[in-house]
Amino acid sequence: MAIAASTFVGAAQADVKIGFLGGFTGGIESLTPPIFDGANLAVTHVNEQGGILDGQKLVIPTGDTTCSDASAASNAADRMVNSERVTAIVGALCTGATIASANNAAIPGGVVMVSPASTAPAVSELNDNDLVFRTVPSDAFQGEMLAKLLMSKGIEEVAVTYVNNDYGRGLADAFVATYEAEGGTVTENLAHEDNRADYRSELGTMSATGAETLVVLAYADTSGQTILRQAYESGVFTQYVGGDGMVGDSLVEAVGPDVLEGMIATRPGSPDIPGSEIFQNLANEAGIDPSAVFAAQAYDAAFLLAMAIEKNGSDSREGLSQALRDVATAPGEVILPGEWEKAKQLLADGQEVNYEGASGSHEFDENGDVPGVVNEMAVEDGSFVNKGFVDL
Q: Which residues cross the membrane (predicted)?
């Protein structure tokens, strides 16, 4: 009997796991570590303030999706779901990786996923049994805001190239539709394949239209970087524009600060809410860059999942989706970033809670989507600078 009791206690105190799926190699390898840092900070706050459930430790094993390889993403997700036996997943980051991970592992396994970075409209269309959520707004909104931003700056003619996947197509479709509706002219809208060494043919096609502004909707560490470098070397285009996948100082360093000075971009941002400032302070204290793209969204994804597990009362996957909606949605006592101990006590007392996060309020709609804001970014003096909200 003593052995059985001891075994039971040991099992009861097993770690609770939420996985993290990110592009640690590939098109966003320079963007992924700060995003993981954001998620890991939330895990740290949970463990420093009493742990999860009955004082158990929250751990966050990682998997590499490579961003663009659906097989790698599926394999990483399968390991999380069936080997690591995670309760939930933060991620994936790139849209194709999220869709592959969801369809091939998470949905069959009944595992909730919360992506802090998958922005393509295709995520909303998944037949996911209410298992796939995101703490970042859809590109249907970012594309619209990028188009209006360019028109407001008097940029009325552009050539567009986008990476030929769900992310690139979704963002390009939203951008082009709004840009043309606002009176702009898209002289060329050209798909390109990622991870190629030469895009001079595509650049020749686009530059032949006479457009001086090149919009690149791709990734900072692969095709986006190569296209901008070869555009400069070819002496074509005078203005460069990008979406959130291009916002990284690694891009500026690789192509050249002088080359990209004045480049315009957008990315999902954090609204002016109390949680945003609190996260900035918490991140700075931890030595993390609070302005890193999607870091705040990753913190919120991990913190929300931890709250949902606590609300659910166990590390079971069953019921977690509804618990996630419960802790993210008003009414309820407001929980801000870093307030794990408060959340844990309120949930123990049977009280309703409402997380108001670092990057937004996260009132999930029926598709698991959230409203949001978009930041204007610009390259100034060798780095991307936040110019404030796009409010047009």
A: none
Backbone Cα Rg of the chain = 21
> How far, CA to CA in Å, does 237 sit from each of 158, 211, 230, 307?
10, 7, 11, 49
DSSP code of 14?
Answer: P
The token pair at 188 is 């060329």
Cα 293 to Cα 125: distance, rounded to the nearest angstrom: 24
Query: In sequence order, which residues have a C-beta less than 8 Å from that of residue 14 and are 6 or more positions away?
Result: 56
Question: What is the C-alpha separation between 9 and 95, in angstroms, rounded?
Answer: 40
Q: Side chain identity at 230, as an amino acid letter?
A: Q
Q: Using CA atoms, how far apart are residues 77 and 108, in angstroms rounded to an integer? A: 11
Q: Position 87: which residue type?
A: T
Which residues fall within 8 angstroms of residue 94, CB to CB, at 6 or more apart?
23, 27, 28, 65, 67, 68, 117, 118, 165, 167
Asked if 294 and 268 count as a contact pair (C-beta separation under 8 A), the reply is yes
Which helix or strand (DSSP H or E) is residue 33 part of?
Answer: helix 32-48
What sign does the dihedral 15-100-291-229 (CA atoms) show?
positive
- Whether pTM > 0.85 for this model: the answer is yes
Q: What are phi and psi of 195, to 5 degrees?
A: 65, 35
- Residue 310: CB atoms within 10 A of its CB come to 24
Specify the pairing of strand 383-389 against strand 373-380: antiparallel
Report pLDDT digits (tens) over 134-181: 999 999 999 999 999 999 999 999 999 999 999 999 999 999 999 999
**Alpha carbon 116 to chain centroid distance?**
3
Pick the CATH number of 13-137+272-355 from 3.40.50.2300, 3.40.50.2000, 2.60.40.420, 1.10.1040.10: 3.40.50.2300
Give CA–CA dist 148/123, Å, rounded.
Answer: 24
Give the start-to-end residue ranges of the domains of the chain.
13-137+272-355, 140-269+373-389
Check if CATH label 3.20.20.370 holds for domain 140-269+373-389: no
